[in-house]
Amino acid sequence: MCKTNSTLVGKVVLITGGASGIGYEAAKNLAKRGARIILASRNVTKLIRARDSIEHITGNSNITYRRLDLASLESVRNFTTATLQSEHRLDVLINNAGALGLPDRLTDDGLNLTMQVNYFGAFLLTYLLLPLLRSSAPSRIINSSASSMYIGHIQFDHWNNINRYSDVEILANSKLAVSLMTAELTRRLKGTGVTANTFDPFVVRDTEILNNLPELTRNISKLFVNMVGQDKEDVGQQIAYLAADVSLESTSGVHYKFCKEWINHWLVSDRKLTRKLWQESKRVVKITAVEDWEENIV
Fold first, then answer.
1. 3-class DSSP state for residue 291?
2. Residue 146 is assigned to a structural domain of this protein
3. What is the pLDDT of residues 144-169, one digit of tens each?
4. Using an 8 Å Cβ cutoff, are 154 and 97 in contact?
5. What confidence tens digit (pLDDT) does each residue in 204-235 have?
6. Which end of the chain is more exposed for a tag (fewer CB within 10 A), N or C?
7. Where on the tree of life does the source sit, at the highest rank (predicted)?
8. Is 204 within 8 Å of 230 (Cβ atoms)?
9. In CATH, what number is assigned to the domain containing residue 82?
10. What's the whole-model pTM score?
């Protein structure tokens, strides 16, 4: 499934959540293709272990890592500043990191924790890196969504509320926001050589995504995942296919599952909604005048 002979020698790939799970598997696959890999995660110990493992397995020593905590807008800004200062190009941005079952609380930024980890952090990261992606075109943005998005809904006055949503509901809302953001990215980046697509990993065996759930729920969920889930190596290969295959260089605004074009959420066609989500997201993450490259384009 999703096999490609495409290489990425001379290309730079940044992948969030790259220290473990499907992010690690995708990074390993892309490293074998010759890419320079930037691993991003909040756990430095896991990042070092992942870097060393990928170097040993692939023979590619051009692997680096940077700490990134999506639950902190300051961390995202520090990460992007360091990346922009050290990297001359960025060919692929893979927003893979995500979480389920996080505490129902606000972050220090005043945002719903799950919404920030799964959406707002990725939005800010993507927005701040877009000038580099544009100057590196043709380049790609690949965003992780989920089937839960189909039951999600966006209410801008309430999307950061606590004590309002269940774990499944807030996950669904965050993943719907990702899909709407990607649709708006596709429209705003038309003609720039930067593409934006989403993928649904379905359910994946042997990852840490269920670790935050209560024990009983976690154990029941693991039984289901072990029965129907995909191997994380296979999902990593699917992500690598979207990142590398030459046939997808101009493909944008598509939702993928099992490496096939899949039915996207119907609201991605609502241009009024996606525009509002874009502007509200910029407001929520407090894009400054200096950061606002859209206003600074001559």
1. coil
2. yes
3. 999 999 999 999 999 999 999 999 99
4. no
5. 556 666 566 566 565 556 665 665 666 788 88
6. C
7. Eukaryota
8. yes
9. 3.40.50.720
10. 0.92
